[in-house]
Amino acid sequence: MVSPAGRVSDHHRLHDARHTAATVLILLEVSSRIVMDQMGWSSPQMIERYGHVTDRMRRALADRIDGFLSTLTEGPSEEGQAAT
């Protein structure tokens, strides 16, 4: 992002680093209040503006949904079955 000479490259802007920082904090599952504090924001709407949904977040959600759905389709556990 920054050249060895200390110049910001043409295709990156220093402002982009704010988006990256917010997204990293969200990926680390930092609470909204701490994200706001670290980024210097007083409004939670700024998290929506600067934070981005990543493929990693989408995958984590898909895994959680898969885990939930698999609990619905499993039969009763051996412990829960009555002896016959």
Note poorly predicted spans: none
Radius of gyration: 21 Å
Shape: elongated
Q: What is the terminal-to-terminal distance?
A: 68 Å
Number of helices: 4
Average residue-wise pLDDT: 84
Order of helices and strands: HHHH
Into which percentage range does the β-strand content fall?
under 5%
Specify the structural class: mainly alpha
Got a strand count?
A: 0
Largest sheet: none
Tell me what you see in this structure.
The chain is mainly α and 84 residues long. Helices cover 56% and strands 0% of the residues. It is built from four helices and no strands. It is elongated and about 60 Å long.
Question: How would you sum up this structure in a few lines?
Answer:
By secondary structure, the chain is an all-alpha fold. The chain is built from 4 helices and no strands.
List keywords for this structure.
single chain; 84 residues; mainly alpha
Layout of helices and strands, plus pairs?
Blueprint: H1 14-27, H2 32-39, H3 45-50, H4 55-73
